[in-house]
Design goal:
The protein has 78 residues and is mostly helical. The chain has helices spanning 19-31, 36-47, 60-77.
């Protein structure tokens, strides 16, 4: 299985998010010492079962699950 790090990055993916979601992504990426792009790519690859781009991301799935639960609970409460 190829990792994102081993392939040339010559394509872009654009997504639209709310300002509050962008801020959450930025803050979470900062906590992990990653750029927003690295964080989003790792999260997407993890979601589809691919290898993570950075070896330091071994706990990203646990952290994402925590974040997902918090977002779900805040949406549910609204």
């Amino acid at each position: 299985m190829k990792t994102a790090m081993s392939t040339k990055k010559d394509s872009m993916l654009h997504i639209r998010v709310s300002e509050s979601d962008r801020e959450k992504i930025k803050n979470y990426a900062d906590k992990l010492g990653m750029t927003q792009s690295e964080f989003c790519l790792n999260a997407l690859l993890a979601a589809i079962g691919e290898d993570l781009e950075k070896p330091a991301m071994d706990n990203v799935l646990t952290r994402l699950a925590t974040l997902e639960k918090a977002v779900f609970n805040s949406v549910k409460a609204a």
